## 1
Amino acid sequence: MFADIVIVGGGASGIAAAISAKEELPSAKVVIAEKNDRIGKKILATGNGRCNLGNRKIAAERYHGSVKDIVGTIKKAPSPDEFFSSLGILCVSDEQGRMYPRSESAATVLSAMRIKLASLDVQEMCGFEVSSYVKKGKDWELVSADGQKLSCRRIIFASGGYAAPQYGTDGSVLRMLRDSGYKTEKICPAVAPLRTSPDAVKGLKGVRVKGKVTAAAEGKKVIASEYGEIQFTENSVSGICVFNMARYMQQYEGKLTLCLDIAPDMTESEFEDYIKNIRKQRSGLELNELLTGAFCKNLAVYLVKNTLQRPMNESIASVTDSEIAKLAGAVKCLKFHITGCSPWKNVQVTAGGIHGSCVDDRMESTKEKGIYFCGELLDADGDCGGFNLEWAWASGYTAGRNCAISLKGELR
Ligand SMILES: Cc1cc2nc3c(=O)[nH]c(=O)nc-3n(C[C@H](O)[C@H](O)[C@H](O)COP(=O)(O)OP(=O)(O)OC[C@H]3O[C@@H](n4cnc5c(N)ncnc54)[C@H](O)[C@@H]3O)c2cc1C
């Protein structure tokens, strides 16, 4: 089979690339080669099924990696509002600038994209797992894991990174490109829950609390801090504000501590006064009721049990001033030693990938003419909050458009 443009990977960036390529050059035959049995599986899982598809507060400090001028590329492409309104999707945003489809449904986003692909006559070739590519004269030949062949004039690699392999992204294309001589930056999780010992979070599974998370290395140097909702599983600390700390694991493995301030609106002495007041109000009750006026039951019991190390059936009246000071200290800085990142299946975004020096501002390879890259495959990643999908759409759009422009002379 022959196509003018083959896009390897039918994820967010690959679909955007197909749309912009076809819009730029309607006569081109554009094929998406996707290893899964359908395109866009990961899109359905984004934003907990709500698809946080962009962010209105795009800024350079929200992006990381060796790709040059990530924000410049994003700003030159249509904004999520423009791109999605052209697909019939209305966007809304919250106070942090996070954009969602008005439907709050990722399925409606994927469906609108597929309707657009069909109207543009883009061909979806599912079950085609690219395992090699080779130059054949002026064209390229892609070979699938089961030996099918696909020839084309241009290739856009949009196959993602290592994060969430259950949606098709296992890093195989990245390894193939590295073996072909592309420089790659070290791979590690960028947006992920952080693991701690199960004993440290015993009793907290399922707890959600708003607070300020501070990451420190070797218990001293403050690396980053962020506000948001903190969540716990049986062996990890999670939530958007924690996800963004994952990237520091690479540098500070084994040395990272999270300090959670779970009453960020109060000072330590205000919280001390609050507990002293409770000691009066609830003097006849047991210790497990000491903090239930401030936190959900499991968290309240956890704090008292772990800080005071006393039987929980003792009375609130027996709590000393120094114990109250210790409790207020724990509320303002609840510490967890981080033992690692969650496994790839729980990771949302990959840091690392094809090095920025391998791609120009049109997303074309600086090594091989006619090859383009976009999305998470490149060494470009953003913070949690819509920044990664916005990069995927924008870089995909840029790659698709420039790839089509480069073909214009040839197809005439
Ligand atoms: C659970 C979860 C929630 C997320 N939520 C958000 C969110 O709300 N907002 C946000 O901004 N970001 C979110 N992200 C991150 C975001 O989804 C990704 O950054 C984005 O999808 C990357 O787009 P991409 O096109 O580069 O790669 P992907 O979307 O990963 O697509 C790559 C495609 O390539 C295919 N592929 C891989 N190898 C081959 C091969 N050899 N041959 C053919 N096809 C291949 C894959 O099957 C896949 O379909 C989330 C990620 C996860 C896992």
Note: The chain has a mean pLDDT of 96.
## 2
Amino acid sequence: MKMGRRISIVSGKGGVGKTTVAANLSVALAKLGEKVLVVDADVAMANLALLFGLQSAPITFQDVLLGEAEIYDAMYEGPYGLTVVPSGLSLQAYRRVNPDKMSEVLRGIENEFDYIFLDAPAGIGDNAMAAMAATKEAIFVVTPDKASIADALKAKLTAERIGVKPYAAILNMVRGFPEEPTEEDVKNILELAVLGSVPEDKEVRRSLLLKKPSPVVVRKPDSPAAKAFMQIASRISGIQPKQEEKKGFLTFIKSLFKKKK
Ligand SMILES: Nc1ncnc2c1ncn2[C@@H]1O[C@H](COP(=O)(O)OP(=O)(O)OP(=O)(O)O)[C@@H](O)[C@H]1O
Ligand SMILES: [Mg+2]
């Protein structure tokens, strides 16, 4: 039996990278060998499916929340054995969804996974609160600007109010300007540990544009953003990534040396 950690990926401000973080962090932890489920809990503006090319999935999380399907029917296989539960794009189905059912559904399967990540809607509205309330912990995604950090503080207070533990923050879309708030600033303002920074990386945006979309951790493991996501996943799990077999010059020399011994 696994000790599933249910973690929502939230933010105050929209567009800061929650869906990107939820997808890539899930893939990164799966790559490290963890059993991971990622759920699109942004039932109004479902985006997660697009990143995994699951936009035509016949059964979605909405069907589960409507009581018309079992959660297992809405599970699809992602990279490295990751399990993905997408939401549908239908506005009609969304209107009938009962977001309060989320918690019940996810509690029922938490022992089957090491991690369950929820891609939440932005802000502190009803849907965002329902997503948070379906988890025990929350990760706050912020970008290095004052508005995003101020809004994250509101989201953090909301989480605390409904009994969800603020676990940590992730600083996304870092450009490296000297004026940018740093990890230290985020830590001090939010009074929260910072798991790491993900740089602004054009490969992240490209993930969605491709004919066969997939998260940057899968597509471009050597890109700066993918490396950052792997580091954050290591930090969360305490698992070090296996040394990739690099056929570099040094490895070549070492292999010759080994053979002679
Ligand atoms: N580190 C990054 N570098 C470059 N682009 C990024 C990065 N992170 C996210 N993006 C891009 O920013 C846009 C918004 O990201 P995303 O959809 O993940 O945000 P969100 O917080 O989920 O938005 P919403 O609040 O609408 O749900 C996307 O086009 C995504 O590709
Ligand atoms: Mg999103």
Note: Residues 5-260 form a domain with the Rossmann fold fold (CATH 3.40.50.300).
